[in-house]
Design goal:
heterodimer, A: mainly beta, 13-stranded antiparallel beta sheet, 3 helices, 13 strands, B: 5 helices, 14 strands
Chain lengths: ~220, ~350
């Protein structure tokens, strides 16, 4: 199971009966076999309350569920695709970056304030995540889109990683993040380095960074 | 994930590899590194030379020419992505007229044509050239004679120029990946916006599918794609936007999925619009023997307007007599470039 990478911008998924996939609507490139694509009203798992939660949280990227038997190729918008395999750990990612994920993962919405209170909310604004982000946990694969190639930076205890908020894609594991500012008088008069805000991640896990500061 | 073996760098004085495994007509490794897990049954198509007619069954893996296969894996993503540097990482490669590759990619995004004679290219795709080359709009004087023989798509004439002369011609298109394809007495249909240039030995025609062009004959052409091109074999159904083209497939047809529009829930869905459409109701279906070329994205390049097909019995799309004043309206649906109104689901569902 899982997703096979065809090239940097395409993945292929095997669909077997009884296991469904979720993918962003319109992200199917091609398929063979008997595969059905059904628009998912609730935008993912968890029933109506989850749907309302997602709507409120603005994490309701249109999803479709993919079922049947065959293989499907996914890709979207010419964005680079990165496949992340989860083994019981947790991935935090913005919903509109989700290209596809396996139905075995539990999807939920997380309030940014839950990680760091007010500063978490500020951080969400700066990274473009908004106040909420999507959490995926369990065993399965996730395909995440990014503008430009994606690379993974491991985070180990005692060694925090600083990431440009605009280049941040996702993170996994038990990671605390905070927004560190390096605002000085130069920024006040408009002569800043352009790197005044950084996302500092510490703990145990990994962060995925895109080689671009452009949002999707 | 092993790295495809590279020729040793610096082995000859003129050894200026642009990118790992790119230009160097390799001592081809018998197997090109890790094939990216696409177990195509039968012949495995190569990125570089597209072997037509369909590969002889005995040798599915023999590239007819040094392929550009490795770059697709190296260039993007994955754990084996080296940065495109020269040997020693000494910065960009400096080319001159001799070191530019002959009819091959300079890097994934630029293609160098050794011109000796004439070449068709789409307007605006030339980025640089060496030598003595003139560019003439199609329709000018001498060129017309050649056109008559090889350019059987008069509606496209204004989009193409003819490069004539000798030299090296560099082509590129908005940083899209370029690939060259060799046809040997074959046929290949490609999205009109994706075709960059072709040998005058090929003949260009309009495909029956609106927005696509068919190349016939023997020769080489250059096509662009958003992301590397991926070859698949029928039977397969392809999102119209992800389709770059196809070769030898006898039967491209439209396929509509709307199972979820049936039944009670489906009826509600259809009446209220709640739940929306999956966006995948319409595909192109390919069956039979051949190859289908996919691009990895659904972001389209602007399609060249395919000329309006005259109103004529038996011609799809053209059946409606076009009013002179509303030609733009009848010509194509702006929402679905390249599809005409065949992709219009509203019409399909009678809405």
């Amino acid at each position: 199971m899982g997703f096979t990478k065809i090239n940097g911008k395409m993945i292929e998924a095997q669909v077997v009966p009884g296991q469904r996939l979720f993918s962003q609507r319109g992200a199917m490139l091609a398929y063979s076999g008997d595969v059905r694509f059904t628009p998912n009203i609730t935008g993912g798992q968890g029933g109506v309350m989850s749907m309302i939660g997602r709507r409120v949280a603005n994490e309701d990227t249109p999803l479709m569920s993919v079922e049947g038997q065959g293989r499907v190729m996914f890709g979207h918008g010419g964005h680079h695709v990165h496949v992340i395999d989860l083994f019981g750990d947790t991935l935090y990612v913005e919903a509109d970056r989700l290209l596809a994920f396996e139905g075995t993962l539990r999807q939920s919405t997380m309030f940014m304030g839950a990680q760091g209170g007010v500063m978490g909310m500020v951080r969400g604004q700066v990274t473009g995540q908004g106040l909420f982000t999507t959490k995926l946990e369990g065993n399965g694969s996730v395909a995440v889109m990014a503008h430009g190639g994606v690379f993974e930076l491991p985070i180990v205890p005692g060694q925090s990683v600083h990431v440009d908020p605009q280049a941040y894609v996702a993170h996994r594991g038990d990671v605390r993040n905070k927004l560190s500012t390096a605002l000085g008088w130069r920024d006040m008069i408009g002569r800043g380095s352009g790197e005044a805000f950084q996302l500092e991640l510490s703990g145990q896990g990994a962060v995925y960074v895109q080689a671009s500061e452009e949002k999707l | 994930m092993s790295y495809p073996p590279q020729p040793p760098y610096g082995s000859s004085p003129h050894d200026q590899p642009t990118q790992p495994g790119f230009v160097m007509p390799p001592p081809p490794p018998p197997n090109h590194g890790p094939q990216q897990g696409y177990p195509a049954p039968g012949g495995h198509p190569q990125q570089g030379g597209y072997p037509t007619p369909p590969p002889p069954p005995g040798q599915p893996n023999q590239p007819p020419q040094p392929p550009q296969q490795p770059y697709a894996q190296e260039q993007f993503g994955g754990p084996i992505a080296p940065l495109p540097t020269t040997q020693g990482g000494a910065g960009p490669v400096v080319h001159d007229v001799y070191s530019l590759p002959v009819n091959d990619n300079v890097n994934p995004y630029a293609f160098s044509v050794e011109l000796n004679g004439s070449y068709f290219l789409q307007k605006g795709k030339m980025i640089a050239y060496y030598g003595d080359i003139t560019f003439k709009g199609v329709g000018a004087g001498m060129v017309d004679r050649m056109l008559g023989q090889h350019f059987n798509s008069p509606m496209h004439a204004s989009d193409w120029v003819v490069a004539e002369g000798r030299g090296k011609l560099l082509l590129a298109d908005r940083a899209f990946d370029l690939n060259s394809y060799d046809l040997e007495d074959g046929n290949l249909t490609v999205r009109s916006g994706n075709l960059l240039a072709f040998d005058p030995t090929l003949r260009l025609k309009q495909s029956i599918i609106p927005g696509f062009l068919t190349l016939l004959g023997t020769g080489r052409f250059v096509a662009a794609s958003n992301g590397p091109v991926h070859f698949v074999e029928p039977p397969i159904r392809v999102d119209p936007q992800a389709l770059v083209g196809w070769a030898d497939c006898p039967a491209p047809c439209h396929h509509y999925d709307h199972d979820y529009m049936h039944g009670l829930i489906g009826g509600i869905r259809r009446l209220t619009g709640i739940g929306g459409a999956s966006g995948e109701e319409h595909q192109f279906e390919f069956i039979g023997a051949g190859q289908v070329l996919l691009q990895s994205s659904e972001k389209l390049m602007a399609d060249r307007a395919v000329g309006h097909v005259g109103a004529e019995a038996g011609v799809p799309v053209g059946g409606v007599p076009s009013q002179p004043g509303t030609a733009g309206h009848g010509g194509g649906n702006p929402n679905m470039p390249g599809l005409g109104n065949l992709g219009d689901l509203g019409r399909r569902f009678g809405l």
